[in-house]
Amino acid sequence: MLTPDWKVRTLMEAYQATQQLGRAARAAGLDVKTARQYLRRGGGPAAAPGPRAWRTRPDPFAAHWAAVAARLQQAPELQGQALFDWLCGQYPGVYQAGQLRTFQRHVRQWRALHGPPREVFFPQAHRPGVRLETDFTTLTPLAITIAGAPFAHLLCHCVLAYSNWEWATVCHSESLAALRRGLQAALQHLGRVPQEHWTDHSTAATHTLGRGADGAWAFNRAYRELVEHYGLTPRTIQVAAPHEDGDVESAHGALKGRLEQQLLLRGHRDFATGAAYEDFLGGVLLRANQARQDRLAAELAVMRPLPATALPEYVTTTVRVNAWSTVQVARNTYSVPSRLIGEVLTVRLYEERVEFSYHGVPQLTASRQRGARAHAINYRHVIGWLVRKPGAFAQYRFRADLFPSAAFRWAYDRLRESGAAAGADREYLRVLNHAALTLESRVEQALLTLRARGAVPRLAAVLAAAPDPAAAPPALAPLPVNLREYNTLLTGAEVGA
Which uninterrupted H or E stretch holds 328? Predict the structure, then answer.
């Protein structure tokens, strides 16, 4: 802010009268340093010299700047680092690495004076209760662990554009199941429903594959059912335009920063269970939302009530069990009991698990596999037939899944070292079948014992190391006999005969 002329005049008059800089500055209401500058200059801001229009040292790039400018004219998107490397290669020994920052300033000035127009962003005035933005973000860099094991995961992050109220749920993929669970959790915590739901072009979660006749992406049926259930109007940002979801994009960084600080205060990043980690995440979000209550109240006042019922957090499909005793669900393979071969199963695909049922009767639950072409083969589903067909084991496509732990893998390798491959396959399958019929943990402990002894883990040795506990009848107390009770029955006294 410019100093008024009357203050400068007061300063000059007071200094002429007292010849004391401090008293004159106080009289004029100015800082001593500012007063000293005005006294040296002999006037106020109008007497200040204009900006310097000359260089204090020669331009080190003047000799070759025309070549640099020509490159920038051809490709304005070139970065200063790449151009400087090119210049050093064209004129070896002329330029040094310490001149990079100066060169980058030259490039920035050229762009400002002669470069192409830059994209203009227009600030938006959000209205209360209108826009809810949802996006996925990874939290792997935070190095969270569950019971000591790395926990790579994503967050389904929902943010109200007007108040910046936010909620997030843990997920492992950008799937429709994850989006449904995350959106419904946010709406249930909010207790109300906004007008619009904004996402990017997450094809797997919100859109069908391929473009329609009009060249636009179409929302898939399951996502339409989700937004219609809550009365939300679906909206998407343009392709490669994340700034259009700027509220949730900026909220990603802020939330990760809060989590990082809370983890530092906590002293470690390990959680006993996934539920404990989600409780920690929820606590961080609740504290962050406390500062947004005023603007949130304005949003809640104009939102619609939440529907009484929520949609199920799974996607239902049907599959037929093939001759391998496996099914394909979301491009991944799962084994099922062989008695179901040829039958059609109903599948509920959750974010974390997959449930199989046959004519409404639950059959099994498996952890959901991630990505594509993954497989989850339970050896108990196929071991009975592998024992009858041991020759199929050597080239079995999913053979790796038939080693439940490192102890079983050691047993197989040790059997192969001690004899023929075919005999080793047959003996290992008998050991694995014993684990399926009894307790896997007991057989594993027997294998560890045999490994410590240096013994070959044949079935007989496994049975000797971990014999089946003998079944003993339960101890029963003798029944007391009272003959008078028989007399009561004969006379019918108890029934009023």
Answer: strand 326-329
Q: Is 473 exposed, middle or buried (0-12, 13-18, 19+ CB in 10 A)?
A: exposed
Residues 152 and 99 placed together within one structural domain of the fold: no
Contact 201, 207 (CB under 8 A): yes
What single-letter DSSP state applies at residue 30? -
Using the predicted structure, report yes or no on whether residue 333 has a pLDDT greater than 50: yes
Residue 233 near residue 198, CB atoms below 8 Å: no
Is pLDDT of 202 > 90?
no
Q: Residue 25 is part of which domain span? A: 5-46
Residue 420 has pLDDT above 80, yes or no: no
Residues 139 and 218 in one domain: yes
What residues form DSSP beta bridges with 305? Answer: 192
Distance CA 345, CA 339 (A): 12
Burial of residue 197 (CB within 10 Å: 0-12, 13-18, 19+) is buried
What's the distance, Cα to Cα, between the start and end of the chain in Å? 112
Residues 240-284: pLDDT tens digits? 555 555 678 889 999 999 999 999 999 999 999 999 999 999 999
CB 195 within 8 A of CB 131: yes
Looking at the fold, whether 338 and 459 belong to one and the same domain comes out as no
pLDDT in the model for residue 497: 45
Contact, 205 vs 219, CB < 8 A?
A: no
Same domain? For 39 and 154 the reply is: no
Amino acid of residue 341: I
User: pLDDT digit string (tens) for 88-112?
Assistant: 999 999 999 999 999 999 999 999 9
Q: Does the residue 121 lie in any domain?
A: no
Nearest to 403 by CA among 412, 394, 395: 412
Spell out where 139-204 has E strands. 145-146, 149-150, 154-160, 166-171, 192-193, 196-199
- Looking at the structure, do residues 371 and 385 belong to the same domain, yes or no? no
- Residues sharing a CB contact under 8 Å with residue 319, sequence separation 6 or more, in sequence order: 327, 328, 329, 344, 345, 347
pLDDT, tens digit, 9 for 90 and up, residues 129-142 = 999 999 999 998 99
pTM over 0.70: no
Are both 371 and 413 inside the same structural domain?
no
Cβ atoms within 10 Å of 273's Cβ, excluding its own? 10
Regarding whether 396 and 357 lie in a shared domain, the answer is no
Helix axis angle, 246-266 relative to 274-290, nearest 10°?
A: 120
3-state secondary structure of 341: coil
- Provide the β-strand partners of residue 361: 358
Residue pair 132/198 in contact (Cβ under 8 Å)? The answer is yes
pLDDT of residue 243: 54
CA neighbor of 221 nearest in space, from 203, 201, 207, 200 = 207
Q: Tell me, what's the pLDDT at 66?
A: 92
What residues have CB less than 8 Å from 47, skipping those under 6 apart? 41
